[in-house]
Amino acid sequence: MKDEAKEMKDEVKRMKDDLQRKSDQKEKDNQKARDEIQSLRTRVKQLESSDLTRQQDTIKQNKENEKVEENVKHLIHKTDDLENHSRRDNLRIIGLPEDHDKRKSPFIILEDIIQENCPEILEQEGKVEIERIHKSLPVFNPQWTTPRNVIAKLKNNQMKEQVLQAAKKKPFRYHGNTVRITQDLSASTLKDRKAWNMIFQKARELGLQPRIKYPSKLTIFLQGKVWSFNTTEEFQAFINKRPDLNRKFEVQPQNSRESSKGIVPGAENTKIKKKRVSAYIHLVGKGNVQVYTQSQHKLIWDMGTLASWRRMNMEGSQEFQKAE
């Protein structure tokens, strides 16, 4: 009996020792897990702090970028204004054919244009005094669809203003060709003004007395008030709030395929057809047009590409103008 009791006590002792070892090991494992969890928590807090710092840095950088962009826009505007100011004494002659009488100097050609269209200016001011005159680009590319503009600087600013006023009243002619004389402006200002072409034409048809103010602001006269718009987007937002005016500016029928494609109401939409050629175009701003072809391709063209497309697919510009 004593031996059995001793064996049982030994067995119990071994079991207690085994349990103690396992308990100690478990405690070590738990402590290790707690340490790892604490380490992970510390790392998460560090990451959160680092992420917050990055977010704050990003916000700060975005604000700095916005400030830089504003400064760049201001400098671009100021530079453009300075360039326009430097061109204030210049005339821009548009549409003078490249193959005009090359035996005559540009000085004589400009004087002939003024003599042919507004001789009273020469009678009042005398001879045209030109400081310099040149083509807008030095070399003509045969692939270009329009002749280069001619830039002329007159010594007499009063004569320049008189020529501009006369050119606004009627189109000028030179040897049977129509030429336009306008104030010379920077390329960016001309581009901004060109974006108004379609809207300007439609506003004129509607009797809204459109005007382009310096540098590229459109004004119209509506309901006894003068409204001004700096961008085509401003104008489109304006007519969207006036359904009666919106309908007048919509050339495309409302049930057309393009009206379901999200075309901006009030944009100039035109359908062009000739035999198997068909496309819808509308103004998308900055002098570009969006084109939907018969094969359902959507393209963005500038005015030069559109002009090339017209010549390839229409029998003469006169027919195309009628289609518009």
TrEMBL record:
GO MF annotations, alphabetized: single-stranded RNA binding
InterPro entries xref list: L1_C (IPR042566), L1_dsRBD (IPR035300), L1_RRM_dom (IPR043636), Transposase_22 (IPR004244)
Ranges where the record places region Disordered: 1-66
Pfam families xref list: Tnp_22_dsRBD, Transposase_22
Protein name: L1 transposable element RRM domain-containing protein
Domain L1 transposable element RRM: residue ranges: 88-184
GO biological process: retrotransposition
One Gene Ontology term, aspect cellular component: ribonucleoprotein complex
Source organism: Monodelphis domestica (Gray short-tailed opossum)
Composition bias, Polar residues: 47-59
Signal peptide: none
Positions with biased composition (Basic and acidic residues): 1-38
Annotated ranges, domain L1 transposable element dsRBD-like: 187-246
